[in-house]
Design goal:
By secondary structure, the protein is α+β, with helices and mostly antiparallel strands. It contains four helices and five strands; from the N terminus they run βαααββββα. Helix 1 (6-15) packs antiparallel against helix 2 (20-32). The mean pLDDT is 95.
């Protein structure tokens, strides 16, 4: 998958250093992946949540952080829409962000 907006992840881990290693790991895995359906993501990430508008929520670092991406399966692309703490996630509408 091509992951768009690595800069958002970098900005986040600059403010939250404990998130750097898990986010780098997620990015490396996602960049190598060929996720052509929600089932393919679910196979790799049991705890991923699927929302409207092809949004997927990943739990990062034991659910300390949340990552929301918009997935275009047919193009093999993921767009980082949000990365934040669990409490920041609770204040957004992940289905429309």
């Amino acid at each position: 998958m091509r992951v768009i907006a690595l800069s958002r992840l970098r900005e986040f881990w600059a403010k939250h250093p404990p998130a750097e290693t898990p986010l780098r790991g997620w990015y490396a895995e996602a960049s190598r992946a060929d996720w052509t359906s929600p089932a393919a993501i679910k196979k790799a990430h049991r705890n991923a949540s699927f929302l409207a508008n092809n949004r997927v929520v990943f739990n990062i670092k034991g659910n300390d952080y949340r990552l929301v991406v918009a997935v275009h399966y047919n193009r093999g692309m993921m767009f980082v829409r949000f990365v934040g703490t669990h409490s920041e996630y609770d204040r957004i509408d992940a289905g429309t962000i």
